[in-house]
Amino acid sequence: MPVLYHKPPPPSDDKRWKIVETRMRRLGDRPPALIEALHAAQEAFGYLDTDALNYVGDTLGVPHSRVYGVATFYSFFTLKPSGEHTCVVCTGTACYINGAKDILAGLDRALHVKPKETTADGKISVLTARCLGACSLAPAVIVDGDVKGKVNVGDLVAQLEAM
Amino acid sequence: MSKPRIATVWLDGCSGCHMSLIDLDERLLDIFERADLVYSPLVDFKDYPEDVDVCLVEGAVSSEDDLHKIKLVRERTRTLVSFGDCAVTSNVPGMRNPIGVGPLLDRAYIENVTLNPQLPSEIVPKLLPTATPVHRVVKVDVFLPGCPPSADLIYTMLDDLLSGRVPGVVGSRFGR
Amino acid sequence: MSEMPAAARAVRRRATTEEVHEGPARATAYVCEAASCMSAQAHDITLRLGESAARAGLSDVMVKRVGCLGLCAAGPLVEIAETGRLFDHVRPDDVEGIVGALRKVKPTDTRASQGPFFEKQVRVATENMGRVDPESLDDYVAHGGYEALRTVLSEMTSAEVRDQITQSGLRGRGGAGFPTGLKWTTVAKAQGSQKYVICNADEGDPGAFMDRSVLESDPYRVLEGMTIAAFAVHATEGYVYCRAEYPLAVARLRNAIRMAQRAGWLGTGIADTSFSFDVQVRLGAGAFVCGEETALIASVEGRRGTPRPRPPYPAMQGLWDCPTLINNVETFANVPTILRKGAEWYAGIGLGKSKGTKVFALAGRIVNTGLVEVPMGMTLREVVYDIGGGIIDGRPFKAVQTGGPSGGCIPAEHLDMPLSYESLIEVGSFMGSGGLIVMDDTSCMVDVAKYFQDFCRDESCGKCVPCRVGTTQLWMILDQITRGRATLDDLAQLERLARMIQRMSLCGLGQGAPNPIFSTLRYFRDEYLAHIVDRVCPAGVCTIEPAEVMA
Amino acid sequence: MTTVFTFRIDGKDVAGSEGQTVMEVAEENGIDIPGLCHLEGIHDRGACRLCMVEIAGSPKLAAACMTKIAEGMDVTAHSDVLLEYRRTVTEMMFVERNHVCAVCVANNHCELQDMAEGLGVTHFDLPRISPKVDIDASHRLFAIDHNRCILCLRCVRVCDEIEGAHTWDVMHRGLETRVQTDMGIPWGESTTCTSCGKCVQVCPTGALFEKGRAVARGSKTKRPFLPWMKVVAEERGL
Predict the structure, then answer these.
(1) Average pLDDT, stretch A77-100?
(2) Superfamily of domain C6-114, CATH level 4
(3) Which one of B160, C365, C369, D15 is most buried, by most CB atoms within 10 A?
């Protein structure tokens, strides 16, 4: 299936676009590369903005509405920049029966932030994950990439508040 | 043997269903030859009596007053008819449900009012969180959808009930 | 979730640096570097052990990173290979002690018993786990890796390979247990010049981490299994569809693909034959439904992961409408061993129509949280009590949940039931991918059913009406029950609706969504009634609302 | 030469050519199988589940719109169980969003309303979900009221397969699923929409409608197909 129009230039001269462009080119600049390209863009920029979605769609020859449909279907993709720090709470079964619900309630009480939200000061984003596979550490959270096991709500809140 | 006792009740609705009932015209004479109307917004009885055979309920259950009334009606009625779309689906009164009571009242009584805006607190009954169909609150025996149900449908249903037949699905539709 | 755990970043940086010492060693320390131990700073332990051994002048000691040692609850784990001595919960200041133990290892030492957790297991898919370095192709080959593929390519026809798999009785380890040999034969015989092999590593069941552990611990085995499958079904291209939530597994898998390509185990003309096959990784992006094979295909094709009605089955019309073989990670991981040891050997393990072994992830209120592989037919009691070490704090066992959101809860009365595809279905559950979540008296079964329904409604793709609307309706009723606001009529409606959703939904997600409700109703109806009639939560989990609050 | 299969639907002997679906053959033989996502001329997706039928020998129900016919198959398209299930599906469509027939532009011209009447749905046992959803009236000629959308995706398919614009697609998933234009932007700002009106034409409910139509005045059957093509062409001087 040939691409009907010319490849668009990247939205800016930010070097990170190169990574996205290369990823797409390696996969033939064709529609099936859409999800991989979105992964590349999110990894490079932390989230997917309209520029990124348009660029990826135009390069791969995917209609914009379909790009948007895909980007919003998968919960891994985020269209908004996240806070300075992220706290991912695992809500897998093992964590659930070991108190993940209490952790989320504790975060909401102390920091007024619910899953998929960022605190008002833009400091901390709370996300949930469908099982990190760290069931032996239940309940588990990931704070800025570091997995913490057997989490105590008070300690977690204290750590986040100190950030 | 005394005649069957019929009542009609008006909850949160536009009264259109009652208008449609009046549209039975001369057939009303036939109905009330065979039954007594013991309670209705169309007649002047103060309290809902005991021992009612058939009650047509128009409107959704929207306020604490509606809730109180429908429970009383259910207690004192043998066959309860959900009369028209508001009673059956909550219809137009239900359009407020996604909005929520707080924002709804704010919009109506505060935001759009220039002179002495205030929330009504006396006399008017308190709104329930949602306007619900009658059958979500009490058991309903017969459903008569329609907005409003046509006079023909109402007649067929009453005729069935008064003749001791079980009213079937009466071929009405929501909205019509 | 775009954050990558620090452990995975470390692997990515390190990529392929060899930490395996050359030559035979007198003593070897295996350090578990699978995700669970890695999140407990296991890699730091590896580095410290190496330094410490070097400082102590122990030149004949090897410190080796290995995959999952299984006992995840006790990580970080270090095992002395020669004696079998296991160090758990290793902290930096334990390192000197381990070095001391390494110093004392004598050539005459034999492995001592490690207790029932290890002794009662039978390792097939996980035979290399905790033994080989997951980042070293040489180490895999040194442990018998690629022997099977070499034999297959040089001595067998594709029909013979399929026969072996058929005779072994291997069934799909992703959950449904479809006979693997039959699937391979269907794809092999399907018309089409281009065929694909896809490895389903979109392990989505909460509480399941078998596939992750296999990929983290022994990625070459999965690639070898896929390559054998490709030969058997005449495919030339393959994909591993892996969850993006498993960065360590993805990093090791990508590394393994690169190494295998370089060594000629993937690519054109594998092992100097005319057979060609290559593999690419495709990342999932957080959609549970993509574990369903038609949704998975849609996702590999770069689209929204929505399933489509079957037939046509992917075996006839799959990826880009070509015949496509889709098997799960564990299924592929069994293949090399079956071909090396023979179909009869494999068929000799197990019970009835459930042959071989099954990997289970033990989690929940169980002492030995971790990864185990047991022969089919082992009783649930042996798994939970002998291997799993029983319930935390010695509390009473209430139920074990298997099969993820499409599975069910098995009560104590069935503890002596042998584990097999058939027996699990008989008691109203489902094998699923192998997550076993143990619950004690602190879990409310209505709340558990609500948890799974919440999961299903959140993961419903939204394509078909019964699942999109129905899972939320079921959740709403369960929510009312847990608040003490439901009636017996609501309970009747719950059951009616659940049956309808089971029969009318488009894919396995919707069809299976009511299962947790069915099984908890079957065994724990009294808990439902307690919430509805007596308005109490026996486990004390749910918050019952005051009676006067109106619906 | 096409192969002809003979088989049975509801006990009636019927025949069709290889490749046809159960739905198509049923229609040709005057057997009505309900369906709302099905529309002749665009690809089927088997999503509304109203056309589910029983096929003897199979434990699972099958979507008639996507099930290819086979020699000797024995299809049951109408049974008490199927009727109950179809009623529940229809109910689900009603309670998912905020359908208020009395104030709907499509009142009396609505396929969902017809479906409920045809199946004898008199009320909804299921509680309403009552989500807060948007109305987008930014397009010059048309508007979309998501309160009335049942996600049949006829609009998405007709826009892609017939018009070739692919202005419409779906966003989010599960109960949050919505049809959307371009990058989820207001319809009026879409750069791909040709204003052809096909989506409005095929919408089974009052979700997509022409602006300026009053309640119950949204009939799509009583006027020539795609009149807006002419309007737009004239405006552009074509």
Answers:
(1) 87
(2) Glutaredoxin (3.40.30.10)
(3) C369
Average pLDDT over residues D32-57: 96
**CB within 8 Å: C6 and A36:** no
Domain ranges of chain A: 16-73, 85-161
Second CATH level (architecture) for the domain A85-161: 3-Layer(aba) Sandwich (3.40)
Q: Is C241 helix (H, G, I), strand (E, B) or coil?
A: strand
pLDDT digits (tens, 9 = 90+) for C356-414: 999 999 988 999 988 999 999 999 999 999 999 999 999 999 999 999 898 999 999 99
- Nearest to residue B174, comparing CAs of D127, D94, D213? D94
| Bond from prior residue into C375 cis (ω within 30 degrees of 0) | no
Interface partners of chain B (CB pairs < 8 Å, 3 or more) are C, D
Residues of chain D positioned with their CB less than 8 A from the CB of C476: 127, 129
Verify whether the Cβ–Cβ distance C551 to B132 is below 8 Å. yes
> Measured between beta carbons, which residues in chain C are less than 8 angstroms from residue D65?
none
Residue of D nearest to A52 (CA): D183
pTM equals 0.93
Mean pLDDT of A36-61: 95
Which stretches in chain C have pLDDT values below 50? 1-21, 550-551
Chains A and B touch (3+ CB pairs under 8 A): no
Q: What is the ipTM of this complex?
A: 0.93
| Confidence (pLDDT) at C3 | 43
CATH topology assigned to domain D4-78: Ubiquitin-like (UB roll) (3.10.20)
Query: Measured between alpha carbons, how far is A34 from A59 in angstroms, rounded to an integer?
Result: 10
Residue with tokens 């009596």: B49
Mind telling me how many Å the CA of B96 is from chain C's nearest CA? 16
CB contacts, 8 Å: D150 with chain C: 465
**Which residue of D136, D155, D171, D178 is the best one to mutate when testing the A interface, meaning the one whose CB has the most A CBs within 10 A?**
D171
User: Is there a contact between D175 and C472 if contact means CB atoms under 8 Å apart?
Assistant: yes
**Range with the poorest average pLDDT among A79-93, B99-113, D36-50, D59-73:** A79-93
Answer yes or no: is pLDDT of A148 > 80.
yes
CATH classification number, C445-534, choose in 1.20.1440.230, 3.40.50.2000, 2.115.10.20, 3.20.20.30 = 1.20.1440.230
Tokens 């919440």, located at residue:
C454
Q: Name which of A53, A63, A72 is nearest D166 (Cβ-Cβ).
A: A63
Closest chain C C-alpha to B161 CA, distance in angstroms: 26
C551 and B CB contact within 8 Å: yes
Output the average pLDDT for chain B: 93
Contacts within 8 Å (CB) and 24+ apart, D23-32: D23/D51, D23/D64, D23/D65, D23/D67, D25/D69, D26/D64, D26/D75, D26/D77, D31/D77
Tell me whether residues C365 and A136 touch, CB distance under 8 A. Answer: no
Domains of chain B (ranges; CATH) run 5-95+127-162 (3.40.50.700)
Q: Specify the pLDDT at position D224.
A: 60
Q: In terms of C-beta density within 10 A (0-12 exposed, 13-18 middle, 19 or more buried), how is residue C93 classed?
A: exposed
Percent share of chain B, pLDDT over 70: 97
From the candidate CATH numbers 3.40.50.11540, 3.40.50.970, 3.30.390.50, 3.40.50.720, the one assigned to the domain spanning C137-347: 3.40.50.11540
Q: How far is it, in rounded angstroms, from Cα C463 to Cα D163?
A: 23
Cβ–Cβ of D170/C472 closer than 8 Å? no
Q: What is the CATH number of domain C356-437?
A: 3.10.20.600
Q: How far is A13 from chain C (nearest CA, A)?
A: 23
CATH 3.10.20.740 in chain D, residue ranges: 4-78
pLDDT at D63: 97
Tell me which chain C residue has its CA closest to the CA of residue A145. C5
Instruction: Tell me whether residues B132 and C550 touch, CB distance under 8 A.
Output: no
Adjacent-strand bridge partners of D7: D14
When mean pLDDT is compared across B149-158, B166-175, C366-375, D70-79, the lowest value belongs to B166-175
Q: How far apart are CA A70 and CA A56, in angstroms?
A: 12
* Residue of D169, D172, D184 lying closest to A63 (CB–CB): D169
Helix (H) or strand (E) holding D73: none
Backbone torsions φ then ψ of D210, nearest 5 degrees: -80, 140
What's the pLDDT at B1?
A: 61
